[in-house]
Design brief:
The chain is α+β, with helices and mostly antiparallel strands and about 170 residues long. It has a 6-stranded antiparallel β-sheet. The longest helix is centred in the N-terminal third of the chain and has 9 residues. It starts with 13 loop residues before the first strand and ends with a helix.
Length: about 170
């Protein structure tokens, strides 16, 4: 993964010492040339060309830290570590999105099969796929590519502009 120059993040502003919530209003997806400059080659391939990274050889498949996963392109908050589980697949898997309005589901008929593709709403990033073999009671598995995500540890949520999600981890 590249430095901060490899990613585009939309974050809230700090006002009076309090972080405001992530706000995607005014977000405009950069063109392909800009994204190629900002993203690593695998991040670009996965998010913009509907690629898939290798199982068990990606950043977050075994991440056990508490925090929030956001779209590497737009910064949209997508998933919480509280909903992450070990699916045995080698990719980060979640039972549900943190913000359902930030994900879009589409039928995917590639590779001679029909699946449900998961994309970010604003960034239109390919994130992964949704399967019906997740744990009870929901039974869903959002199987995501680490290359399409950026993880924000719970202790950094405020400074990164995602302070509203800190409360999720304070309840534990």
């Amino acid at each position: 993964m590249k430095s901060k120059h490899a990613m585009l993040f939309v974050v809230g502003m700090i006002l009076g010492g309090q972080a405001m919530a992530w706000n995607g209003s005014g977000y405009r997806k950069p063109d392909a040339n800009e994204l190629k400059k900002r993203l690593g080659s695998e991040q670009y391939h996965v998010t913009q060309e509907n690629g898939t990274e290798s199982a068990f050889r990606n950043a977050y498949w075994d991440n056990k830290k508490e925090g929030v996963y956001v779209d590497v392109v737009s910064g949209e908050p997508l998933f919480s570590s509280l909903d992450k589980f070990d699916s045995g697949t080698g990719w980060p898997s979640f039972t549900k999105p943190l913000e359902p309005a930030h994900v879009a589901l589409h039928e995917d008929r590639s590779h001679l099969m029909t699946r449900i593709e998961v994309r970010s709403k604003l960034g239109d990033s390919h994130l992964g796929h949704l399967f019906d073999d997740g744990p009870a009671p929901i039974g869903k598995r959002y199987c995501m590519n680490s290359a399409s995500l950026r993880f924000i540890p719970k202790e950094d949520l405020e400074k990164e502009g995602y302070g509203e999600y800190r409360r999720l981890f304070d309840k534990k």
